[in-house]
Design a protein that fits this description.
The complex is a heterodimer. In chain A, strand 3 (64-66), helix 3 (79-86) and strand 4 (91-94) form a beta-alpha-beta unit. Chain A has helices spanning 21-24, 44-47, 79-86, 99-107, 117-127, 155-163, 167-172, 175-188; strands at residues 6-9, 11-13, 64-66, 91-94, 111-114, 132-135, 140-142, 148-150. Chain A is of the alpha/beta class. Chain B has helices spanning 7-13, 40-49, 85-100, 116-122, 154-163, 188-199, 214-218, 221-229, 245-251, 260-270, 321-334, 360-370, 389-397, 400-406, 456-465, 472-475, and strands at residues 16-19, 24-28, 31-34, 59-61, 104-105, 131-134, 148-151, 165-169, 172-179, 207-212, 238-240, 283-288, 295-297, 305-307, 349-352, 381-384, 410-411, 432-435, 450-453. In chain B, a hairpin with a 7-residue loop joins strand 13 and strand 14. Classes of the chains: A alpha/beta, B alpha/beta.
Chain lengths: 197, 476
């Protein structure tokens, strides 16, 4: 994973609440066996509408997406995070995210930044004309107009994102503890036996 | 005295491999179900890093999402090829990845094949008190057996394959207590739709739900699976129901269930799992069972529910301006007008199936309504898709397939089918579907498709009348 310390750029003022994963990337796009190339399928049903914010030249090359409450609800498809990444989005700012989406975003170095609705309302305004900046060190979102909003994230996730750490490597370093757990269960709960492969 | 704990806390505590100071923990995963759609990139990741699957013996792979539900074997016993090359490639990837990594694989034409969330309980791969994951959000279903089961993304699939663990933060606990019992003709699906209508699609975010109350104690395991399955539609990654005698009776003797002395030891352990009397939940919601009517969705979110005897709500009736806006968009997409009686809404398609409602009880409930009746002339497409090959065989042994085909339904092979618009079973643009699945999102059943979620009996009733119908009028 590439380290992410700062994201700076124009933001798409999308703002919708309850954006579900089927809207982010429809099932038809899930037949792929690759992580690449899903950007062209992102928000397909919205992009079919004239004057949609995603195809507005004003926001071409935007690296941030601003959305409403409960972003990424629905399916567990990580394709939603891959599609956003492929369309050049590096951070999503919303009042809240679904649990699975925020985990999927994190695993792909995509920032899911929670901010209260008042901050979202202000950023939606700024986004129409100016860039915004997200700084992972100070955990803040700022604008050229001296706005400054701080956000919270669990410190483990913050560190992994800033250092670009591979979570599987981190866990494999604990293989002794994993093995100890397995031994404990094997001896105390023999019913727990695995299936025959 | 030991601290009083909830069912969730007991399972969590028994699976902590490593506790971090910041409150997150490395949690051991006892069971991992793998399907074709969310796994290819995970296996590719393992290959690139030169990693193995740590516990292939705790992993079970089966295709379901992408697999067509038409015949899989021709008259000469040969496999019928899959027409869509991309789908075929994805299915072949799983068929190759499973043996390459030593994982047990149930193939498309094996009699045990079916939807991951149907075959897990059916094979007793799912057991109470275990942690179970799958790259699918409806993994919440397995919570019905008292397993801590939740959906994960593909990176987490890879993490579990490589380490048999996940790095997780402990969720908050949420009690959904239902008081009283359901009225006649009202099913577990009506109850869970009603619950989601009350708590909203983000009501359970950050929480693990436990469903409590006499209604769940009396409910069959199939019914409990329907309820737990849709926990994610209320935002909760997992939804548990305490294991009890019904759970044990359901599991006993199934292929992967413990046997002999192991069985007795397992039951003794499972009996210690239910939430302690004085344990506390972070959040508690009480629902009156008497408030639950046969329920359908009118909009494009599973929280958009209404009694079938009711009317399409007016967008202005919602307090929040953004919900008003969402409701206007939903009505436009659904081709409905506010104030319209639900009972006047005509449907062209009927789908009975999905991990929510494709078990034997679901098929019996639908067949009971359809017995001796024909689908209405306006219904163009009606399919029944059993959740597994074993459900299909059971239904055929009971003669249910005959009831379905006599009434004008197609009787299909097991799979996810028209739940998600990924395989050939899709609802045409602008058409309506009375569906027993779990999501009515925009485009979910195919681009432009209009989904009304409901119970199997209600979908059968809609097939008979050609309109959304209160099933109680047909079975009274």
């Amino acid at each position: 994973m590439k380290p992410v310390r700062k994201v700076e750029g124009r933001a798409i003022p999308f703002g919708q609440k309850n954006v579900d994963t089927d809207v982010i990337i429809a099932a038809e796009w899930l037949k792929t066996i690759s992580r690449e190339g899903l950007g062209k399928g992102a928000f397909e049903s919205i992009r079919a509408q004239e004057g949609n914010v995603f195809d507005d030249p004003e926001y071409a090359g935007a690296s941030v997406l601003i959305a409403g409450d409960n972003f990424g609800c629905g399916s567990s498809r990580e394709h939603a995070a891959w599609a956003l990444d492929d369309m050049g989005i590096k951070a999503i700012i919303a009042p809240s995210f679904s649990d699975i989406f925020s985990s999927n975003a994190f695993k792909n170095g995509l920032l899911a930044i929670p901010l209260p609705q008042e901050a979202i309302d202000r950023l939606m305004e700024v986004a129409k004309t100016d860039p915004i900046t997200i700084d992972m060190e100070s955990m803040s979102v700022t604008t050229p107009f001296q706005d400054r909003f701080t956000f919270e994230m669990d410190p483990f996730r913050q560190q992994c994102l800033m250092d670009g750490l591979d979570e599987i490597d981190l866990t494999m370093a604990k293989s002794d503890a994993i093995e100890a757990h397995e031994n404990r269960v094997d001896s105390a709960q023999s019913w727990h036996k695995p299936i025959a492969a | 005295m030991t601290e009083a704990k909830t069912l969730y806390e007991k399972i969590w505590d028994a699976h902590v491999v490593d506790q971090r100071d910041d409150g997150t923990a490395l949690i051991y995963i006892d069971r991992h179900l793998v399907h074709e759609v969310t796994s290819p990139q995970a296996f590719e990741g393992l290959r690139k890093a030169g990693r193995k699957v740590r516990r292939p013996d705790l992993t079970l792979a089966v295709p379901d999402h992408n697999l067509p539900t038409t015949a899989r074997i021709d008259a000469d016993g040969n496999k019928i090829p899959i027409a869509d090359p991309q789908s075929a490639a994805q299915l072949e990837a799983l068929e190759a990845n499973a043996p390459a990594f030593g994982i047990k694989y149930i193939g498309a034409s094996d009699k045990e094949q079916g939807i991951v969330h149907v075959i897990g309980p059916e094979q007793a791969f799912t057991l109470p008190g275990t942690t179970l994951v799958c790259g699918d959000s409806h993994t919440a279903a397995h919570g019905a057996l008292g397993a801590l089961a939740f959906g994960i993304g593909t990176s987490e699939v890879e993490h579990v394959l490589a380490t048999q663990t996940l790095q997780l933060s402990r969720s908050k606990s949420m009690e959904i207590r239902v008081e009283g019992l359901l009225g006649p003709g009202i099913s577990p699906k009506d109850l869970i739709l009603h619950i989601i209508g009350v708590i909203g699609t983000a009501g359970g975010t950050g929480h693990v739900i436990e469903y409590r109350g006499e209604v769940f104690e009396q409910m069959s395991i199939e019914g409990r699976l329907t309820v737990s399955n849709m926990s994610i539609e209320g935002g909760a990654r997992a939804g548990l129901i305490a294991p009890d005698e019904k759970t044990f009776a359901y599991l006993k003797g199934r292929p992967m269930a413990p046997k002999g002395a192991d069985w007795d030891a397992a039951v003794a352990y499972w009996k210690t799992l239910p939430t302690d009397d004085d344990a506390r939940f972070d959040k508690s919601v009480t629902i009156q069972a008497s408030d639950v009517a046969p329920t359908v969705t009118w909009g494009t979110s599973p929280e958009d529910v209404v009694a079938v005897t009711g009317h399409v709500p007016a967008p202005e009736s919602f307090a929040d301006a953004s919900k008003q806006d969402a409701a206007r968009k939903s009505l436009d997409y659904m081709g409905l007008t506010s104030g319209q009686a639900l009972g006047d809404v005509a449907v062209e398609n009927i789908f009975i199936g999905s991990c929510t409602n494709s078990r034997i009880e679901d098929l019996r409930a639908a067949a009971q309504v359809l017995d001796g009746r024909k689908k209405a002339a306006g219904v163009k497409w009606a399919i029944v898709v059993p959740g597994s090959g074993l459900v299909k065989a059971q239904a055929e042994a009971e003669g249910l397939d005959k009831i379905f085909t006599d009434s004008g339904f197609e009787w299909r092979e097991p799979g996810c089918s028209a739940c998600l618009g990924m395989n050939p079973d899709k609802v045409p643009p602008g058409e309506r579907c009375a569906s027993t699945s779990n999501r009515n999102f925009v485009g979910r059943q195919g681009p432009g498709a209009r989904t009304h979620l409901m119970s199997p009996a209600m979908a059968a009733a809609a097939a008979v009348t050609g309109k959304l119908t209160d099933v109680r009028e047909l079975i009274g």
